[in-house]
Here is the input.
Amino acid sequence: MKNWCAKVGFEWGQGIGIGGGGALAGLSNIPLGKGPKSSLGIAFKSLVDNISNKSQADNIFVSMNFPRIMYKIIGEFGWRQEIKKNGLKVKDLSRRL
Here is the structure.
């Protein structure tokens, strides 16, 4: 986005990088700024303030407030559900063609 802004003559203000962003879809019922989304709420508040004040700031990088091991376990569970939904078995993932 920063490069695009430079190409079209816009001024870059600030960006947010979200680690563990894949979990956001599963956390849609949790309000921004609460629980696993608490650091994300702080980052968005900073972005909104800078937009309102027409000011620039450094890019912000945040991670979900969620234990890494739980993120991995839930991710693996999600993959297994998708595999079964598509009529395959988990062992089919390691099968060579």
Q: What stands out?
A: The mean pLDDT is 87.
